[in-house]
Amino acid sequence: MSIREDFVRPRSERENAVRRAAILDAAEALVLETHNQRFSISDVAKRIGVSQSTIFLHFRNREELLTTLYTRVGKNFFDTFVGRLHEGMSDKAFSEAFIDTALEYPGFRLMRPMVMRVVEESLNKEYIHDAVKEIFLYRTAAADKVEEILKLGPGDGRRLMKSFVNLMCGAVQADIRKLLATEDLDENVAEGVRSFDFRSGFLNGADLLMKGIRAGV
Question: Which among 1, 74, 128, 213 is least buried, having the fewest CB atoms inside 10 angstroms?
Fold first, then answer.
């Protein structure tokens, strides 16, 4: 495949940033479509319409591309979530703000377990460690804001945010609606399946977590 000249010869840092963003957009689209981190550099190149060598002008390897994407989606997630926090919000409204942000930015909840698998499989941990550290900083900043808004005890904001992220990822795995055709089930069972979707599954668990935090558990 020929190399697009507009990708090969950036004339400024801004143009280079635009090209990197286009590559990350293509990689994220592949993640959202396949729910799998095992896309190849060639998959990304084909989606954009460039050669693999063009991708390597901007990212040293697939690990760097994947982890850069993870930090980007994580930053977008936490920035948006924090922007929805406000004084006087209820615990329920807080939990809804979190899960609705997760629904708006599905890349974060999909990529977290993916990146954890890459940590296990990778021979080069440099990119992985940097990405995980950066996401941790975003989460910590959000947690400190949560503590202030919800008037929690010292350290409870960080405990809560860690638990919410873990619950969010678990709720994805527990969503059985996509596994069962409700029209083939007894109506009572079908109603139960319909009620246990990703959002409601998360909110049920979040309610218990909030009560535990408030009770000092």
Answer: 1
Instruction: Say which residue the tokens 């899960």 belong to.
Output: 99
Tell me which residue of 68, 77, 64 sits closest to 107, measured CA to CA: 77
CB-based contacts of 139: which residues, under 8 Å, 6+ apart? Answer: 74, 78, 158, 161, 162, 165
Give residue 33's pLDDT: 87
- Whether pTM > 0.85 for this model: the answer is no
> pLDDT per residue over 163-187, tens digit each?
999 998 887 654 444 444 445 556 6
Residues 187, 205, 128, 23: what is their CA dihedral angle, to the nearest 10 degrees? 50
What residues contact residue 33 under an 8 Å CB cut-off, 6+ apart? none
User: Residue 36 burial by CB count (10 A; 0-12/13-18/19+): exposed, middle or buried?
Assistant: exposed
214 contact partners, CB below 8 Å, separation of at least 6: 91
Over residues 100-112, the pLDDT tens digits come to 999 999 898 888 8
